[in-house]
Every structure is written in C-alpha cells, then in structure tokens.
Design goal:
The chain has 104 residues and is α+β, with helices and mostly antiparallel strands. It has four helices and three strands; from the N terminus they run αβαβαβα.
Length: 104
Amino acid sequence: MPSSCYNALTTGRTLLADRLENDVDQLQWELLTETAGRLQADLLKSHLEAAGIEAELFQEAVGRHIYPVTIDGLGRVQIFVPKPQLQAARAIVAQYEKQIGTHG
C-alpha cells in the first residue's frame, strides 16, 4: 500500500476514533469489550439486547465491507453499552464466555 494511502487511512481511523470517543462520552456510553470479528460481536449484542441492555457496535469499514479481515485490528469490533448498564452487561459477557468455553 502506498505510504500516502496508509497515512490517510491511519489519520482517518484516528479522527473517527476520537470523534466516536467524544460522542460516547457525551452519550454516557462505555466500552464493554472488543471481539476479533463481527459474528461474535453480533452474538454478544443479541444476548445483551435480549436482557434489555442497549448495545452499539463499532468496527472499521475496511474490516467489514471490503474484505472481512482481521489483520492489524481491522476485524476488531468494539461493543459499547450505556454506563448505567455496564455491570449487568459485564455479567452477561462473562456468562457468554463461560458457555463458549464449555461448548467451544
């Protein structure tokens, strides 16, 4: 990849992450966890929503839409929940991970 493209991509990722961080602070959302791919993130989001916990996913567009890759964190998905629901959400994630460990 040409360095100018790489620099533009890196700068764009940083600006977007900074903007999301500011929006998340204003909306009182907290990072719950990160997953290595969209499938696991969607499953966790479903578990959270079934328990009445709102969840939002954040992923780099390149990692999902162009080529679903996990190189250099491109496949990483961040899951955010409202701060007041963070402890309940952590319990659900722990239960989910225990189930995956038992059956995976």
